[in-house]
Amino acid sequence: MESSRLFFEADVLDVDEVWTEAWALARLVAAVGAAALVPMALQWLVVETLGFASVFVTVLSLATQFVLAVGTGVVALYVVARGVQLADA
After folding, report:
1. Is the C-alpha dihedral spanning 51, 45, 48, 54 positive or negative?
2. pLDDT over 60 at 1, yes or no
3. Contact by Cβ (8 Å): 55, 31
4. What whole-number distance in Å separates Cα of residue 43 and Cα of residue 61?
5. Angle at 33 between CA 23 and CA 60, to 5 degrees
6. Rounded Cα gap, residues 39 and 68, in angstroms
7. Residue 60: burial class (beta carbons within 10 Å; 0-12, 13-18, 19+)
8. Mean pLDDT value across the chain
9. Which of 21, 36, 29 is nearest to 75 (CA)?
10. CB contact at 8 A, 74 and 32
11. Which of 11, 77, 80, 82 has the most CB atoms lying inside 10 A of its own CB?
């Protein structure tokens, strides 16, 4: 069975397919970043506007870390799953 190289057609790089995959991945990373900005912005508002550091700051900091950790996992799973899909096609 002959193995095909992903993103190559007749030994020429298919730039359009690479950009399509890169754009989808970039949108996913941007969505994770935007989701992480929500608790970070709330934390900034609590500290700067209200002028105090409290338990809320710690909770919001942990929430930001959690969103980033879960988002990183989702992005990694997307990359692996998409790679398997492309390899099978």
Report:
1. positive
2. no
3. no
4. 7
5. 165
6. 11
7. buried
8. 86
9. 29
10. yes
11. 82
